Amino acid sequence: MTYFVYTARDRSGKPSKGNLEASDRGAAMRKLRESGLIVKTMVEKRKPLSLGKGFTAGGIFAKQVKLKDLAIFSKQFSAMIDSGIDVLRSLKILSTQTSAPEFRKIITKVHSDVSEGLTLAQAMTKHPQAFPNLYISLIRASEESGALDVVLDRLADALEKELNLRNQVAAGLKYPQAIGIAALVILSVMMIFVIPAFKEMFASLGGRLPAMTRGLMAVASFMRVYWWLIILAYLAFPFSLRMVNNTKGGRELLDRIKLRIPVFGQLTQKVIVARLTRNLATMLANGIPILRALDVVDEAAGNVIYETAVRRIKESVKEGESIAEPMEASKLFPPMVPAMVAVGEESGDIDGMLSKIADFYDSEIDSMVKVLTSLLEPIMISVMGAIVGFIVISLFLPLFEMIKLVRDM
After folding, report:
1. Side-chain-side CA neighbours of residue 295 (13 Å)
2. What is the distance, to the nearest Å, from the Cα of residue 160 to the centroid of all Cα atoms in its chain?
3. Among candidates 296, 307, 362, which has minimal Cα distance to 135?
4. What is the SS3 assignment for 117?
5. Of 73, 80, 192, 378, which shows the fewest CB atoms inside 10 Å?
6. 66 with 201, same domain?
7. Bridge pairing between strands 50-52 and 55-56
8. CA end-to-end distance (rounded Å), the chain
9. Which residue range forms the structural domain that includes residue 160?
10. Are 323 and 289 a contacting pair, CB within 8 Å?
11. What tens digit of pLDDT does each residue of 139-175 get?
């Protein structure tokens, strides 16, 4: 995806500026035109460096709205519209009820823009840190069809499923992470404080230490002297990954590696497939044309390899092919997915079939996370035991040899 900064004006002449990501300049222009904006300038920029979750580095620090807050907003907004409350009044109420300060400001600005004549979709386009392209596309379609409450309710359900998906993966990895951190702390204490005490004792006894013990002492000495370098490397590693991820080639390399990691690559694939099929199902169910839906969905894949595959599917569909054929040719989707999509295309229920695929992979992810958690725990404990065992043997091996020498005297 390419990052663009633009200035524009709406149909009433009100100026607007912002940024967006798109596959190319033409796609960026189409998105802005569909939002009712007349583009004055558009410049391709390097994507701002991410400093952490929800932040970007630039002249202004823009905090990303949490998925949970957006889901709650959508559900409450839907309930108000369904109850007969108009859009402006609903936004006014929501701006006072939302607990997140940053999101509250955004809703207030959206309310102000709508009151000045912009459509809801046009007003939301100005805040990409809160409303993804997929969200805005569905809102635009709902305004045209007059089914805003229904679409908001479906959006809330889709966001809740995405949130549950993320929570499943995070919860499954939480306990292994805790074990890993505890193991690192214990090993660091042993290396920095315990082993040096043994080193002094061995030095007083004299004699040549076994190679295993000498290696352990060398590692302990390095950690004791260069502890600051280890901490610096630990802090620099995620920052370096983000820098690499902000380059086109670097992101592609990292995304390819994620898919090839044993076991975890399969989990990543299932998460992406569930996300893509759910988002595509939601858009098609709400009357978004297939080409427009594919154009928006590729941005939500979260993996450049799959984004490229979705763009190829879109090009094939333009040429009159089905969705299933290029999907199968990409080799990125499990065989079941294009097979079910083909059935959906033949029966005329493609959105329903895509929803079933997403639900299936949601349950697959849940099962896989549970299995991974149950396997990771004993593996990590075994690795920890092996490391501690190596340290103990390395420390006591010289003592055993000295005791043997004393007995032989």
Report:
1. 19
2. 15
3. 296
4. coil
5. 378
6. yes
7. antiparallel
8. 76
9. 62-207
10. no
11. 887 887 777 888 888 888 888 887 887 787 777 777 7
